[in-house]
Specification:
It comes from Chryseotalea sanaruensis. It holds the Pfam family Peptidase_S9. The protein is of the alpha+beta class. Among the domains are: 548-648; 669-937, Alpha/Beta hydrolase fold, catalytic domain (Rossmann fold, 3-Layer(aba) Sandwich), CATH 3.40.50.1820. Helix content is 14%, strand content 33%. It is built from 14 helices and 54 strands. The protein has an eight-stranded mixed sheet with strand order 45-46-48-47-49-50-53-54, sandwiched between helices. It has a seven-stranded antiparallel sheet with strand order 9-10-11-12-13-14-15, with no helix packed on it. Strands 20, 21, 22, 23 and 24 form a five-stranded antiparallel sheet that branches. Strand 43 (632-640) and strand 44 form a beta hairpin. Helix 7 packs across helix 8 (777-785).
């Protein structure tokens, strides 16, 4: 009997175990992605390591909603988190994280729906996270905060103004006469005019000091002290500028002012023993504000006026600019200040109807009126650099209206600076955006100017120690250097056997450089890139150029330097460099190290992924980076510089496993011009090669390098969302395009069409249900292609130029530039003017062959488009409507070239996919397509 019972128990156990195993292995039924997932999909918006490398801090936020800060102990991997954290800062001693805590987003929205005033909405709090104890302290109603850049243990924050409670009248005593009530002086209110309460906290023991009515404040870099301005509390604290010594815990008023004085530009030298600030002591409402520069040293009792309009060296009718924050050189020998011409002031006695408002477009203007309008606020605030020598108390103006741009080097310590001017050549920059520049060397002490280059086309720079001016010449496609000591110009790369300019550039203009890495210590060597490798150049050609990475070109690996220290000014001669590596053939990427002392190049990590976002701890070799692929979200990983045993730190979107995602593969084909090309083919999950799938074709120029890029579900930036399409059983094909000058439309056709037909030949593309979509330049190419073929069943063309003859003379409103350069030099690749090559403009304009279009078209053209004139969409729509072609146009009000407002991006995302679903999948035609939305229904009905 016992044997029978035992056998039964064994059978029951086996059956239970078998059921459990079966249940455990049941696959998750994945759902297709829908727009409902957008808001909750998370991004990692910030990542950092404490200086000692022991802790990591990240901000993980949903696309719309409340996020959180996450703090990791990298030894134990224990974590702490704080909800709704933002503006996160780590203290230099690696002990705390300080951040804002935002109010609940939905709560704020609900109060706004109730039409609550701004002052009645919840305010930010301050959060302090202690890494060792993992404790969080919260302080309510905080307006701003700061910590010293290079010192721990101190925090300063300002408190929001408290809302005054309304006092109810006392109706009990009616015997008092109004005449007997003495007027009560109103209490001074906190606010932008008077300032806010400033709290200075020592973090180690939470001891605090409070200061009243503070308008501005700043810590010394190394925590020597804090400076602040106050309008005064009329009793214990007078109006003026104060210095609080953090070592001595002592407060000193260094300038006594008036509550209506305007202080700006608080600046502290690196040693923390000198201050500078700007002061406007005029208490009237005069339109002309005249600032003076004040200077103080810890050995002085009060700050002294250093520069005013009367100071020798300030040009006549010029002022000290309020828009340039004074800057100490690192060695504190020089104080840099901004000067500016006295502004032209309006006549305030005139009524509005008496003021003539007219733009006068003069052909002699050096800059177009539209550019001037875009640059107006910057021009009003433009200042010109001057140097005040703190040793001999002399001021030298370094720049002026004819020589506007100055670049300092060696943290302001160098004797020389670089000055550049494009003023002689500005007239032509409305059609030639590569405006030439004249280059000068400026002596900081004497102000002497020496021209060292004329009409240079290309960017010009100065070396870290100020020994060389160097530039890339677009005309010569080579790097040059100018030795300030010898006044000699040296051609550095022209004789080398490889190109240092873009080898694949197909624009009708000079190709751009691959870029520069930097300089070694003491300006000894200049490091630059070719297409693949890193080269070391002697700035005076005394030593032959050296290819440091050697194998890049032969192995088709692109090496680029990863700057791990944001404050790095130069590279040590024996440094171990961290390099990114991208294989042009396989699209794999990873990391290499390069030892400059031994020239050893070592592979550290490489895989079929994309790596990015590399950050390093300041005082250790601990690093954070992201790894991604089409199917892998770019979560954060932690490692050291050897990349031994990297560990995944985050899993920001665990819900990914619940959704159909798909796959991507690199495909190859040949253009009609017989050029080998590549493209990306995205396939649905559980792809069945025996089935036929509808396919969407999207493109811009070249996209194959994105093989291992991740695309998260989010409202579209004016293009199809490939991950959303693939999740909903579309194929998505993205071909590369190469161009011939003068034939942009035909080049696109010759590249895209053989790619599409090669996909059809694979047998799984439903050739009767293929759509095409593009935005901007892609929109133009879409519009052109459907004039040449009826293969596509539906087309989406966003912000497309369809008439190059009318667009040629238009304005790019985002910059104020003429659109001429677009066609003569840039993306449109015509390579000549409208009157030089009129047939090219006509033949490449889809508008003039719109009668050949048989494809239904969805146009998007926004009425504040800052790149393409929105009347291009109108021309296209009107032509197709006149020809009785199926056409719809979406015009998002007050939106620019690419949609910015989230609600509009969501809306377009839905309409674009409804359009394609109707034509390619046979879905029901939505109301907005079938009947339209009337003006009276706008903003009320969506018609989905």
């Amino acid at each position: 009997m016992k044997k029978i019972i035992s056998l039964l128990l064994l059978l029951l156990f086996t059956a239970s175990f078998s059921f459990a195993q079966k249940k455990k292995s049941t696959p998750v039924v994945k759902k297709p992605l829908t727009p409902d997932v957008y808001d909750g999909w998370r991004d990692i918006n910030y990542k950092a390591l404490t200086p000692d490398g022991n802790y990591a801090a990240l901000l993980i936020n949903p696309q719309d909603g409340d996020g959180r800060a996450v703090f990791y102990n990298l030894s134990s991997f224990k974590e702490g988190s704080v909800q709704r954290a933002a503006e996160l800062t780590l203290t230099f001693d690696s002990k705390q994280a300080v951040f804002k805590i935002k109010p609940q987003k939905e709560k704020v929205k609900e109060l706004r729906r109730q039409k609550k005033k701004k002052e009645d909405l919840p305010k930010d709090s301050l959060g302090i996270f202690n890494f060792s104890s993992r404790a969080v302290e919260k302080i309510a109603d905080v307006k701003s905060f700061k910590v010293p850049e290079k010192a721990g243990n101190w925090l300063a924050y300002t408190l929001e103004a408290k809302k005054e409670e309304k006092k109810t009248a006392d109706k009990t005593d009616t015997t008092k006469k109004k005449e007997s009530v003495k007027p009560v002086k109103k209490a001074k209110k906190n606010g932008d005019d008077n300032g806010y309460t400033l709290v200075l906290r020592r973090l180690s023991d939470k001891q605090e000091v409070t200061f009243s009515y503070v308008k501005d404040y700043a810590f010394a870099k190394f925590g020597q002290g804090i400076v602040f301005t106050s309008t005064g509390n009329d009793t214990t604290q007078k109006a003026g500028v104060y210095w609080y010594d953090l070592q001595k815990s002592s407060l000193q008023q260094i300038h006594e002012g008036h509550k209506k004085f305007k202080y700006k530009g608080l600046s502290i030298n690196e040693d923390g023993n000198q201050l500078a600030f700007l002061l406007d002591s005029d208490t009237t409402k005069a339109l002309l504000r005249q600032f003076s520069l004040y200077h103080w040293q810890t050995s002085q009792d009060k700050a002294k006026e250093l520069i005013s309009t009367q100071t020798s060296g300030v040009p006549s009718e010029w002022l000290v600019s309020e828009h340039y924050t004074p800057l100490f050189s690192q060695n504190s020998k020089t104080l840099f200040v901004g000067l500016a011409p006295r502004p032209l002031l309006p006549d305030t006695t005139k009524l509005d109807e008496e003021i003539i408002k007219v733009d006068i477009w003069n052909w002699r203007d050096s800059v177009l009126q539209t550019q001037q309008a875009r640059q107006l606020e910057n021009e009003k605030k433009r200042s010109y650099l001057a140097a005040y020598n703190l040793q001999n108390n002399t001021l030298k103006a370094l720049s002026n209206e004819h020589l506007p741009s100055i670049t300092l080097t060696d943290e302001g310590n160098a004797l020389y600076a670089l000055a550049i001017s494009d003023k002689p050549y500005r007239w032509s920059n409305f059609y030639d955006i590569n405006t030439p520049q004249d280059a000068y060397v400026i002596n900081i002490q004497s102000g002497e100017q020496k021209q060292i280059g004329k009409a240079l086309k290309g960017d010009t720079f100065i070396s870290p120690k100020g020994n060389y001016i160097y530039w890339y010449s677009q005309i010569d496609t080579a790097w040059f250097s100018f030795s300030i000591n010898s006044s000699q110009i040296h051609s550095l790369t022209k004789s080398l056997p490889v190109a240092f300019a873009d080898e694949e550039d197909d624009h009708p203009d000079y190709p751009s450089a691959y870029g520069r890495l930097g300089w070694t210590e003491g300006d000894q060597q200049f490091l630059v890139y070719d297409r693949y490798d890193i080269w070391s150049l002697d700035p005076e050609n005394k030593r032959a150029a050296i290819n440091l990475t050697k194998v890049g070109r032969s192995q088709k690996i692109v090496f680029r330097y990863i700057k791990l220290d944001p404050e790095e000014k130069f590279i040590k001669a024996d440094a171990q460099l961290l390099l990114s590596a991208f294989n042009e053939v396989t699209k794999a990427s990873g990391y290499y190290s390069l030892n400059l002392k031994t020239n050893e190049l070592k592979k550290l990590l490489s895989s079929d992924n994309r790596y990015a976002g590399t950050v390093k701890a300041m005082q250790s070799d601990k690093i954070l980076f992201t790894r991604e692929s089409f199917t892998e979200f770019p979560d954060v990983w932690v490692s050291n510089l050897s990349f031994q045993s990297p560990k995944k730190l985050t899993n920001a979107n665990p819900q990914m496993k619940n959704y159909k995602w798909g796959s991507v593969e690199l495909v190859k084909f040949t253009s009609l011009d017989n050029v080998p090309l590549e493209g990306l083919l995205y396939k649905p999950e559980n792809f069945d090669p025996t089935k036929k799938y509808p396919m969407l074709v999207y493109f811009y120029e070249k996209s194959s390098e994105q093989l291992y890029s991740h695309f998260k579900p989010q409202p579209a930036w004016s293009i199809i969302q490939r991950v959303m399409c693939v999740s909903n059983d579309y194929l998505v094909f993205i071909p590369d395009i190469v161009y011939k000058i003068g034939l942009p439309g035909e080049s696109a056709y010759n590249s895209i069409m053989p790619g599409v037909t090669s996909m059809i030949a694979k047998g799984f593309v439903d050739e009767k249900n293929i759509g095409i979509q593009g935005q901007s330049w892609g929109g133009y190419q879409t519009a052109y292609i459907i004039t040449r073929t009826n293969l596509f069943k539906a087309a989406g063309a966003g912000a497309a130029v369809v008439n190059m003859t009318s667009a040629y003379g238009g304005i790019r409103w985002g910059s104020g530039l003429s659109r001429m350069f677009q066609y003569e030099q840039s993306q449109s690749r015509i390579g000549g003017t409208l009157w030089d090559k009129p047939l090219y403009y006509l033949e490449n304009s889809p508008l003039f062959t719109a009668d050949k279009i048989q494809t239904p078209v969805l146009i998007m053209q926004n009425d504040k488009d800052d790149a393409v004139p929105w009347y291009q969409g109108i021309e296209f729509y009107m032509a197709l409507r006149r020809l009785q072609k199926p056409v719809w146009m979406l015009v998002y009000n007050d939106e620019v070239h690419n949609l910015q407002q989230r609600q509009n991006r969501k809306d377009y995302d839905i309409r674009l996919m409804q359009f394609f679903d109707y034509y390619l999948k046979g879905a029901e035609e939505p109301l907005w397509m079938k009947q339209g939305i009337k003006a009276t229904e706008k903003g009320i009905l969506k018609g989905f």
